[in-house]
Amino acid sequence: MSALERIKHNFFDLEVIEKYAPSIIDGLWVTLHLALFIIVCGLVLGLLLAVVRSFQLRFINWLIIFVVDIFRALPPIVIMIVFYFALPFVGIQMSGFVVAWLSLTLVLASFVEEIFWAGILSVDKGQWEAARSTGLSFFQTLCNVVLPQAIRMTIPPLTNRTIVITKSTAIASVVAVPEILSQAGAAQGFSANTTPLTMAAIAYLLIFIPLVAMSRVIESKFAWKR
Amino acid sequence: MLISIVNPNDRPVVLDAKGIVKTFGQVKALNGVDLAVTRQELVFVIGPSGSGKSTLLRCCNRLEEPTAGAVYVDGIDILNRGININAVRRHIGMVFQSFNLYPHMTALGNVTLALRRVLKLSTRDANSRGMEALDGVGLTDKAGAYPGELSGGQQQRVAIARALSLEPKIMLFDEPTSALDPELVGSVLEVMRRMRNTGMTMVVVSHEMRFAREAADRVIFMDEGHIVEEGTPSDIFEAPQHQRTRTFLSAVTQK
Ligand SMILES: Nc1ncnc2c1ncn2[C@@H]1O[C@H](COP(=O)(O)OP(=O)(O)O)[C@@H](O)[C@H]1O
Ligand SMILES: [Mg+2]
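# magnesium ion complex -> structure
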């Protein structure tokens, strides 16, 4: 076999592609759903935490910082394994999908909270003072004046972090979620051929290239004239 | 609590600050300052950097919480914990050295935010009142411009319109022209002069001595958290009683 034929046989075997395309496509839907749920819930929860933190209630802030630091420090795969294999011992049983969603949502929310919080702090004190001097309440100022600026400033780190964490849905195979990589791994085992990994890579690109492109659009939309 | 305070020439007192003390840790920014401003009066506050001028203004709308003393605005004790400070603040306009316009909103958006959120006007009513306010500072054609597209002088005029549109009972100015290029100062002073002529009550912290001479009813000289002396512009500028006032004035006018 020539080198070219070897490559073709190992990475682009048409028979294997045909046989395992349905399961890879199933995996693609699972990954897509997982990714969307994580992005939406992680961003919303992270924003809520940052808003709660801005009220500067000592005990609650301490709690937020503590929890957020734990979820930022632990490798996501460890969180998933703990949730999936350890929590049942205290009576909490969740499906692999829920575990993967919850773990990565909490990780994303933790990073997002820190990013938003840094954004809120970076808004000039004069903005608060100007708004409050016109009679706006703390919360009105936060929502109308401070958060819009904080969010704009933090769009690049926010989109980056969102993509990085959403990509780690690939580790959900350890908790038996039939997402792209776990489907591809199984197919690779059955077929004794690495073509399913090529298919997995293409499936990931199909999901994440649009996401990356969208983040670029958002970044340019939110850059406003100074 | 409503109490009517009337001064000798029968004009009601709009702002009455009594014995204001403000400490920041070890620093005594204000050491018992009294400031009473009657309706339509323009009080000018001068003094060296760090003498407590900004802190005094900021105590008058509770951006700073005074350590001791009392502040009445239109007879309302604004330091009372029970009052709704937001309802009080809309009656006290404030203009800052650094403009502090909201960079993500147009000039009109800056002016109408409080109209919509505090006065709860409809968007249409807020816009028409906002346009009136912008017209008042000569910036109708800039209604759709973002702060980043405006000169410093234009930004400060938008900031004035933002405060004026709420129809405040008193306006506080903290060095409104200090951040401006010299050629832009005039347009802002012109707007302030017009406000003065239409009877707005104003407290102005500024180093624009020429403006003080022609527009102020009273000039207050502050140093080290005290009012050193006060009087008419001619009292203060032509016949200052205290050495510290003379030193300050000669330093400022030498520039
Ligand atoms: N937020 C603050 N924290 C600590 N010290 C302050 C603060 N604001 C003002 N000061 C101090 O209070 C004094 C008066 O300041 P300020 O009112 O800004 O003076 P001015 O406006 O006359 O220059 C200064 O010594 C200043 O350093
Ligand atoms: Mg000052």
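# post-check
The domain at 17-222 of chain A is CATH 1.10.3720.10 (MetI-like fold).
The longest helix of chain A spans residues 14-54.
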